[in-house]
Amino acid sequence: MAPNLNLNDDNSLFNYVVKEGNGVKGLVDLGLTEVPGRYVQPPHLRMNKQEVASSLENVTIDVSELDGPNHEQVVKAIVHASETLGFFQVINHGVPLEVLDSLIVTAHQFFDQPVEKKAVYLKEVSPSRLVKYGTSFAPENEKALEWKDVLSMIYTNDADARDSWPNDCKEVVLEFIKTSSEMVQKLLQALIGNLGVKLDDSRLHELSGSDIVNMNFYPACPNPDLTVGVGRHSDIGMLTVLLQDGIGGLYVKKGDQNASPGNEVWVEIPPIKGALVINVGDSLQILSNGRYKSAEHTVRTTDVESRVSVPRFISPLPTAKIGPFPELVARDGVARYKEVIYGEYWKSYFEKSLNGKKSLDFASI
Predict the structure, then answer these.
(1) Total domains present in the chain
(2) Which residues form the Fe2OG dioxygenase domain (predicted)?
(3) Comparing C-alpha atoms, which of 352, 72, 137, 88 is closest to residue 240?
(4) Please, are residues 249 and 202 in contact by the beta-carbon 8 Å criterion?
(5) Amino acid 266: pLDDT
(6) In a domain, 29, yes or no
(7) 59, 77, 109, 208: most buried, per Cβ within 10 A?
(8) Is position 51 within any domain?
(9) Burial environment of residue 282 by CB neighbours within 10 A (0 to 12, 13 to 18, 19 or more)
(10) Using one digit for the tens of pLDDT, what is the confidence trace for 48-95?
(11) Does 153 reside within a domain?
């Protein structure tokens, strides 16, 4: 046991895990045989195996066909998935397999480092606002912590990234951004075009100009049924592009988003080698006046081996105004959301612990 660490004392545990930067990885490396109480989730927030649907319709889309004779069918598939589940997977997306494999290896290498190498990026001491290392989602505001450590890198331009991101991560993450950007633009154009909305380049940039890549690390957990890797939430941006490793554990709420606990149906988004997971964020749900759905999702822990994932979050600029597109309000006869400043929406989101799709209340009428 580490000196000055009492697993049964919340303050001692919080200092060790959060303030000193040891994270969940540091706890696991102590040889834990059971989860500390601070990580035990309330029963209604755990993933009940009975709630998990056994099958999911195949929502794997070959996005290279957007450039061919099957363009309309591919757009229909993207739109259908975005209107129903809010999640789909893409193949032939332009990111080389060796880049995807390297991202997984690099994520493991970063979190396997001694704590002093990672703790230099804790938000209180990080040399740059563009990079932050930490644990859980909002540990200061959470009653039960998530079983997750995270490295977050804000992308502004290549030069800033090379100056500030961790040396071992920056080149492969830059390559991920470079090789996935064309696909992201095509998806946004397909989804916005399907709404009958035309945007000029400056407005499209305003709605998708923020770019963050995270590396998430979920250590193997001695009591996976008591914990969560990520709490139930929807993302708040436009689109998320996610690389999973082969272990699995990402679950999406299906059907009635307001179903009461016990009546929910969850489906796993299965890992597919070489595929990327795409999910709709709150901003796109708001702009589409509710047509596209930002699905509630969560991550389970496992006792088998440590898992990593690498999401890229495409979001509006902080100063951007987001509200239903006027063309849709005219057509629908009603605005289902009010116009908000994205930066204020972001601030509201990160001031609280994750809580399903409650984040949308900020923009609800």
Answers:
(1) 1
(2) 209-316
(3) 88
(4) no
(5) 87
(6) yes
(7) 208
(8) no
(9) buried
(10) 665 666 555 668 999 999 999 999 999 999 999 999 999 999 999 999
(11) yes
SS3 231: strand
Inside any domain, residue 2? no
C-alpha angle 92-157-347 in degrees, rounded to nearest 5: 95
Residue 87 tokens read as: 């999640």
Question: Once rounded to an integer, what is the mean pLDDT over residues 23-32?
Answer: 94
pLDDT over threshold 90, residue 263: no
What is the average per-residue pLDDT within 97-120?
Answer: 97
* Predicted pLDDT of residue 354: 80
Q: Which domain holds residue 338?
A: 10-45+57-363
Task: State phi, psi for 130 to the nearest 5 degrees.
Answer: -85, -5
The label of the residue with tokens 């796109």 reads 284
Secondary structure E strands in the chain: 60-62, 87-91, 131-135, 149-155, 210-218, 230-233, 239-244, 250-254, 265-268, 276-280, 297-299, 307-315, 321-322, 340-341
Give per-residue pLDDT as tens, 287-346: 999 999 998 999 999 998 999 999 999 999 999 999 999 999 999 999 999 999 999 999
Give the integer Cα–Cα distance in Å for 262 and 364.
26
pLDDT exceeds 80 at position 118: yes
